[in-house]
Design a protein that fits this description.
Elements: E1 8-13, E2 20-25, E3 28-34, H1 35-40, H2 51-76, H3 81-90, H4 95-107, H5 113-127, H6 132-141, H7 146-159, H8 162-172, H9 183-194, H10 200-219
Length: about 220
């Protein structure tokens, strides 16, 4: 492309995203940017770019898109570094560029695997309770370092009795089980809790409490 042919031919408000503008070069769509980017990079209709300016603009906009995408993900909830990287790769960004941005976000405190792990556990215990073993495995699957994952889980369950978490889960799913104190009921309850990562002691304690509550209810 000759320098003289690299020209910003139009800048139009985006029809898809409010607050963004579509840039056209030589009549073809080039990129979508915010008003702040238009101003900071002096992007105006009719501006002619040299080849070096065009390549520099392309690199800057790619970097801004990457950072915008990262911030959007982080604004929704905490992410582990691995999880954020995977999502950005799916958006088509280059691995080496992602690594640089995540390193900067980690340094600034926006990405913190330990804080992510704490947040993840709290959400799980509140909305979809699981045992300590499964929570640690889930965190590892999301790229949290094993020592961090197990350390955070251990700290959380030093404050929370896993048996109580298991009992709460049983109560929420009571309709799935017969309240009869039978071998089959006990087996199904034990398998249900074991498959959700609860330890043997917690399973037995929750089972006893669950069936005892059923006995009390049947006597009333």
């Amino acid at each position: 492309m000759d320098d003289s042919s690299i020209k910003i031919s139009a800048i139009k408000p985006s029809t898809k995203v409010m607050g963004r503008f579509s840039i056209y070069i030589n009549g073809r769509f080039f990129s979508s940017v915010t008003e702040n980017t238009l101003t900071s990079l002096s992007l105006t209709v009719g501006r002619v770019l040299s080849q070096d300016e065009f390549e520099d603009l392309s690199a800057r906009l790619s970097d801004r898109k990457l950072r915008d995408a990262a911030y959007r993900f982080l604004s929704q909830r905490q992410h582990s570094a691995h999880e954020l990287s995977a999502k950005l790769k799916k958006r088509g960004f280059e691995s080496h560029e992602i690594s640089v941005v995540i390193a900067e976000l980690t340094e600034a405190g926006y990405v913190d695997d330990r804080r992510f792990a704490e947040s993840w556990i709290e959400r799980r215990l509140r909305f979809k309770p699981r045992g300590a073993r499964m929570l640690a495995l889930e965190l590892e699957a999301k790229g949290v370092e094993r020592s961090v994952a197990h350390g955070v889980v251990r700290e959380r369950f030093s404050e929370t009795d896993e048996s109580e978490v298991a009992l709460r889960l049983l109560e929420a799913n009571a309709a799935r089980f017969s309240r009869e104190n039978s071998v089959d009921t006990k087996r199904r309850i034990c398998n249900f809790l074991r498959n959700r990562g609860f330890g043997s002691d917690s399973i037995l304690n929750a089972l006893k409490a669950f069936l005892k509550a059923a006995d009390v209810a049947s006597d009333e």
